[in-house]
Structure formats: structure tokens, C-alpha cells
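Q: Start with the shorter request: fold the first protein.
A: Done. Sequence, then structure:
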Amino acid sequence: MSSLAVGVVGMAREDLTLQQRGETVIATVVGERLDPPEGRKGRNWNYTLEHEDGTRVPGPEMRTTSDLYDVGQTVTVIEDPEADLRPQTPGQADATGEVLGAAGFALAAIGSVVWMAWRGSVTERETAEVVGQARLRREQEEKLRETLRAYSADRRGYITVSPGDYPALTHGRAARIAWEEGLRAEAAGNRGVWRFSETVIEEVPHS
């Protein structure tokens, strides 16, 4: 889309330049040709123009999207004294509406490209965060399993761990891991710590 916008803006800029520095003349069509076929691309008609004195109108051939003129026909055109731009009829060179349309088209295209780039960046970042969180959660789950297997119970029969060591795990997930290891998670009176034992007063639901 951005490349199309660049093309449209370029055409509008050429039309405006031709209006500003061009000269209006009466020319005669001395040659016409149709672009060779190129896939499904539209074919343009190209006209060779001469002044009344027989000199050629400067610049590339005049171009239209349909067959509008015949050899020998006279036509009023705006020519480029510097021979850089194609001659155009005054109607073709009226760039006011095209410039406004091109500006809006270009802004929409640029906005679309910027949005897609931003969205791609956000998606990539979100994916990396999700992957990172999943990896951290697996690491902490394994760490908790090792802790529950290795630690000795206190005199009351509890294995106590600090939730701060497992920020990626919920109490319910920790309870599930403990259950898989043959223990239960204590819900009541934990005073900021997680306690696990074979028997508890109030068990935390597994998640």
C-alpha cells in the first residue's frame, strides 16, 4: 500500500509542477502507439506531438488511458520547457483534487504501515513474555517439588516455604504440586508462609 501511495503522490507532484512551470500550446498529433501487452496491466495510449512550426513538443510522449486522439488532430496541451515531464491537457494537469486525494491516501498508507509494524512488535513482545513466564513457572514448580522432597517436617509435621521464593505460582498451584508429592497444603493460620503436611486442618483447593 505504501508503494502505491508513493506512486500516486509522485504523479500529483508532477502534475502540480507542470501547472507551475508549464506553457500552454496548441500541438498536432503526429504519431500514436499503444503500450505492448503486459499481463493484466492496463495499456496506455501514447501520442507524439508537434508544434505548428513542426518542432516536437518537449518531453516524453503524452499518455492517456484510452484512445482519445487521432493522427492529424490538434490539441491544447501544457508542455514542460525543461522536457522532464510529459505534456498534458489542462484537464489532465489539474492537480488540485488529485493532490488532496493523494495526501489522504498517503497518510492512510503510512498509518497502516506504522500500525502493522507496531502491532507486530507488540505481538512479538507479548509472545516473548508469555514464553518467559511459562518457563519461569516450570522452573519454580520443579524447585518446589525438590523442596518438598528434600525438606524435613518441623515438630508439628509441616514443611514450610516462603511464597516469595515462588512468585510465578499461586497457592492453589502449589497445593496441586504438593498433592502430587503425597502432601496437602494448609490454608488456615499460615501467617504469610505456605505449609505442607500429610494431614492439615483446612486444605487449599488444587489448581
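Q: Next, the second protein, separately.
A: Sequence, then structure:
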Amino acid sequence: MIPNYEKLYRGVSHAAWAYFFLYFNVNLNTLNILPNFVCYLLLWSAIGCLEEEERDLTLLRPLCVLLGVWAGADWVFTLFGGTLDGRFPPVDLLISVAAIYFHFQLFTDFAHLAARYQPPGVALDRRLLRLRTVHTLLLTAFAVLGYCFPNGAQFTFPGGSLPEGVVTVLLLGMALSAMLVALMLMFGLFALRKCFLPTEEET
């Protein structure tokens, strides 16, 4: 079967922009005007464009729906002055585990695509796998902190609590790391997108 490069280009492009909506928030009061659920709408579209080339992506569709619905419900709650965060701790944990697996497998599939289409000597597939691992570690850290310390800055242990300044630095460092990784993920996907541009011989 001859690959549909235009479709592959569109799918990877949608995936790259999805991570912009997932990690870069612009808040109007407490409402994010770049809602996270748009990320999963874009990833749903990306899966539709890429699943013929990478069959395992089809298995991610149910998780994409679950995460998108949860993100959309949280956005609606925020619109009316509420939040889903912390309301249902076991569900929060389940959603976090689903997100970790979803993004891990998604970037594994992107790495497979890169290995198949990257120019010789580029090693984009290895770069995507490294980013996948760092991203997974960050998601896991956020999930553990959010579940174990639902009160945010009140990081209390049996022997006492962390000073507020230490907590602030820790959270700020993690947030900056997440933004940096998000940028690298986007750049990695835009680099993958270039693999599907028509060559001069084809044009």
C-alpha cells in the first residue's frame, strides 16, 4: 500500500499542536481559554490520520475519548466556578494512570513512524523515545504529588512538613520542566512531520 503522505503530514501536525493546548494555558480569571480537551480532539484526529500506517494507534481511541471527556467536564466545571480536581481521588488516580499510558504508547508509535520514514542517519526515533521517557516520568511525578498531597502547598509528612518556599521552588521547577519538555515534544513532532513533505523528485 502506498502511504498517503498528505494524510500522515496532517496527522502528525495535529498531534504536535495538541501538546500546545495540553501544556500552555492562558487563563481568563480561572478559566483556561486554551482548553485541554482540544488536545484530545486534535489527537483523535491525528489517530484517524495515522492509524492505517500504525495499527496500534487504534487501541488508543477509547483512552483518547476518556481523557477528552474528563478534560471537557473539568473545563465546564471551571466555567461555572468549580473544579473536578480532588472531588473523586480514586477517579483522579485512574485518569492519571490512563494519561500516562496513553501518552507513553502514543510516542512509542510516533517513534515507530520516525524509524520507518526518517532520513538515514537522523535518529529521530531515538529522540522521540527519550522525550517519551522524560515525559512519562514528569506525568508520574505530577500524579503522585497530586494524589498524595491534594492540598498543594501543604506537603505534610509524619515528621513534619516541607517549608512553603521549598514547595514553591519544587512546583515551579516541575512546571518549567513540563513546559520545556512540551516544547521539545512539539519540535520532535514537527521534525517528524517534515518526513512526509514531498521530495523535489516528486514535485
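Q: Describe the second briefly.
A: Strands lie at 27-28, 31-32, 156-157, 160-161. The chain has a mean pLDDT of 83.
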